[in-house]
Task: structure prediction
Amino acid sequence: MELQWPLIVFTTLVAWSAGLFGTQALMALRGAGKKSQMTAWAASAVLLVVGGVAVFFHLEHWERIFNGFGHLTSGITQELIAIVVLAVVAVAYLVMMRKSSDGASVPKWLAGVSIAVCVVLVAVMAHSYTMAARPAWDSVLWILYVIGNACVLGPCTMAVIMSLKGDDAKPVALPALIGAALAAAAAIAFAAFLQASGGSFAEVGFYFDPTHPTKAMADAAATVGGQAPLLWGGAVVVGAIVPLVAAIVGRKSANWKLWGAVAVIASLIGAVCLRVAFYNLGLSVFMFY
Result:
């Protein structure tokens, strides 16, 4: 399957946005990072808007997307609902912050709701890509992987913001480390699943597609094998191991300006690498039966 860069940008930025908003809500629950709340909220909002705009570039006739919103089982409908709910909660969060005596506090119930909505949004967004017709995509590990993106990008970004704004970053250090560990485990598991996905297709011998008679038949084994550098070098080593090491060093040194930034940059590189492999391996079973 050809690469869908608008969707790569969309899924990456929305996971990042939700992770950051969820982390700042977690800090609000703990009464930490008050100087950083407004900056984190603004950064999360920008990421969500840019990701939302990017998804429209996936469509040749974007105005026709509204025809699909009448079907609640549609993935784009579910994504839209989740994004709208998050936007409403985020606006309520901003209003509560502005109304608070210190300009940075929110009710604990709202912080809890914010965290829950962030998790639901990322899960719904990832779930819309799971398709039985594309074996490499049909796994709950993909959903866990995207949630893992949010778990590492959000806390590590919040750690950088808190360090830059003069907040004590200790409260976010453990969430950053746990998030990096969860993200690494999910990345390794999903990379292994993708590597094994070639076995989902049957060998059918000589065949040609009557609608593309001059096009060679897809070779599942070769396609999967060709993605190994992206999977293990980009998504796992750079995108999973490096952020985990950076989170460990960042927690020990308390130098989150450096190590938080390293974790975020490496996680973004890994997220893009895995999504590129994800689309390259999005072979349809139609070509093999």
Observations:
- The chain has a mean pLDDT of 84.
- Residues 140-165 form the longest helix (26 residues).
